[in-house]
Amino acid sequence: MTYEPVLLRNRGVPDVQRLEVYRQRGGYRALEKALRMSPAEVVQVVKDSGLRGRGGAGFPCGVKWTFLPKDHPGPIYLCVNADESEPGTFNNRILMEEDPHQVLEGIIISAYATRASTAYIYLRYEYGRCFRTMQRAVDEAYAAGLLGRNILGRSDFHLDVYLHRGAGAYICGEETGLIESLEGKRAWPRIKPPFPAVEGAFRKPTIVNNVETLACVTHILDRGADWFKSIGVPPDPNNPRDLGSYGPKLYCISGHVNNPCCVELPLGVTARQLIEEHGGGVWKGRKAKAVVPGGISMGFLSESELDTPLDFNGPTKVGCLGLGTAAVIVIDDQTSMVDVLYNSCRFFSHESCGQCTPCREGTEWMTKILARIRRGQGELSDLDQLLEIADGIGITPGTTICGLADGAAWPVKNALRKFRAEFEDYIRSGKRSAETGPVPVGHL
Amino acid sequence: MAVITINDKDVELADNERLNLIQAAQRAGYEVPHYCWHPALTVVASCRMCLVEVGEKKPDGTLAMQPRVVPACQTPARPGMVVRTNSEKAKAAQAATLEYLLLNHPLDCPVCDQAGECYLQDYSYKFGRGYSRFKEDKIIRPDKDYIGDNIALFTDRCVMCSRCVRFTREISGTAELQIIHRGAHAEIDIFPGQPCNNKLAGNVVDLCPVGALCSKDFLYKQRVWFLKNTPSVCPRCSTGCSIVVDHHKDIVYRLRPRANPQAQGWFMCDDGRFGYKYINAADRLISPMVRHDKHTFHVGWEEVLPTLRRQVRQVVGEAPQSAWLVLSPWLTCEEAFLAVRWFRSLSPQTRLALGPVPVIGEDDRYPKDVHGNPPPPEKTRFTIRAEKCPNRLGVEAILRHFESQVQTFDAVLAAANKGQIQALYLTGGYPEPWLSDEQAKVLEQVGFVVVQDILPSAATTLAKYVLPGATFAEKDGTFVNHAGLAQAIHRAVVPPGEARNDARIFMELAERRGLPHAPTLRRELAAEVPFFALLKEGQIDPLGVFLNGKQN
Q1: ipTM of the shown complex
Q2: Chain A partners within 8 Å of B49 (Cβ)
Q3: Rounded to the nearest 5 degrees, what angle is found at the Cα of B190, between the Cα atoms of B187 and B194?
């Protein structure tokens, strides 16, 4: 079955970043349709569609919108999470660079549905090209009356959109960290409650949505909730907490594949399909040893788990944290899992904001233990120590404020439980990771 | 009445009472370890030391505990809640956090100023493990002695609780402190070139639960386990902050605020905190002195008191209206009462007056806004008052009882100028010079001046008799603050040399036997002066008593 891309339908169309080209291809039709409905009806459509947040946690988007206080005098803010920092993830970049108006249309519709009067696009600093294309799109939209006051002649709908460039921190992708950073503060995630929908940016109700989520909103309004529900995977009848995984999803494929790419597919495709059919297979004729299902913080799939469907429910069944951002990183069989895990831990200890003790110290400790193992000075008991730390940090055991520590812990848990023999061999053989030598102190 | 269960002990919550689980557990007698939470600051729940298990009783009697541990500081106590602060799971989580906190801690307790009052030490004993499993190299960060004129930061010892940062943002409003860097490398620092020198800065040292922020004034002066702690009241302004005087071998080493919602709250200002040094000053008056012509002679109390009594009595006998007693607002109520009683016993026509009341500037209110302006009154969280003395209200109440109108010091000067004063009994106790040269010149016209004071001043040079008195740390008594709150001060150290506490001097002058006993004197005072009626029990609650009867 071939799938006709929706979110990426304009990819490669010349000049589609320009408003008139986007309009010729049916752009802003969904907005006009939405404006003929009441905000509550738009929320209902999105709720009916079963759209779940594409940023990683998979929280139902429409439900999140209903958490906004009723009859709030305003202002209400919409924050667009474009701080795409999860290793291996680049779908937001493609959406913003290739088809900025599609994202913008989703933003305008969502702002209409949530009664937000201001939208902030929190863009990671490194995305300079996204910044330029998005800014151009915003300027065009203002000129065309799609932004600003009285949008499309509606006297009761005004929206200002601002692009805000972050300063380069993974934690700014956490929704309350993003809000703090947007307010000009240190991106230390806030304690919840209150949730942002009640008290967010500048102490006003705030909705934080991912770029891809908002792009989906455009098409849900255009084609209807039923169309969206016809794609993807229905809820697992054996799991009462599964809400189903509907709609298209952008999968990012990177790592040791012949053809790293971003493809749009219905939710529920397996990792093996992604690698073989879209990634061009593992490079150099090798086999995959492990595959990251959705950004490094989700953990690892082993070779035997590659037929796991990558929907919101699938990866958890094999011990991963979740679908995450659906960024598939392929690790070939020539790569040492010790090195992979060290790299992952180093990333998270570098990005830990330093607020909660278990995450601040735990991620650092794990990195140092792995660094020592890589220097050939590891002991078998270190593996138990690593697992103890990994099991003890994060929201899951309740010891941190945000999920960064879970993201740091899951690769450790998965790697040590699924590839333990490799770690033990590594330690027993007294091997040292070849190219690195002593780990530079600056990295610890 | 709602009930919450803490480790099988039921705690009652009053209606509308908002407690977090740390406070509720405290009420049940359980300590929940915590670093970042402080009752006066916002909740950040970031240290993760106070992790506990919570759940609830189902209607069928079974317990449903949540699978996750939760921070007790962030979790409000709700009726019907079941809390486990010492279950295996909670204890494991607390021990893990403590182990994390100590990973990069230098463990330099032997040279750390905080040792003995350090929450890392205390909690390690109570909730931690006895050894470290950390085999790696510790992160070493530079110490910072530039944080403030009175504050040094030992960066390695910091547990990143952010109490100090929140204090400068929420209480002082000056926001000098911040956190720099990220993750395990995070450090407390100042904005370059802008040290933490606001008037409340010293509080960050008290707030620091570990030995990271240290007071330069106290640093390496004394091990805290040698210190004795005496509850008292700060005398440096009419706010009357409840404090603790930390002393050892009759030397005062530091003052710390004592939490008292009725007086000042949780904190104290640096004027008060570091304003104790006059107690230990080298030039304190240490023995009675008599002047003959231009020479002063040190004499003993046995010698000076009978002569003084006789001479004062003589002047009063001749012209009672020309004998003046000036009561300093630094006297305790008991002392002022004894002094007035003695003076009035000589003759009811003797004159009474209030000593100079030092007022400097205006009340200084916090938190400041970004421009350094004071907050509106309803948002004020701390006030340093302009009136720089502890007991004007109390002394005035006594004066008003004995004379319909309180004579100010200006009236004394005016009378002296007109030659209407033949005998003048001045009481001092001011830490700063309190008599200007012009005023001293006026008083020189008075033939017979007695000064009872603690430090040499313009007054002592013109006095016929100088009697060495005591500071607030050297006596018992009562101060009444700006709001009419009577608080007890307690003797921490003995006065230097032959100096005596002022109540004793007045008792000896009045030929009353025995030594001053504050509760007894308070009872007498309450019986005679209605303003102090509520002190009739003699003892004062550690948090003080509002003399007008109002509660908080």
Answers
A1: 0.92
A2: 357
A3: 170
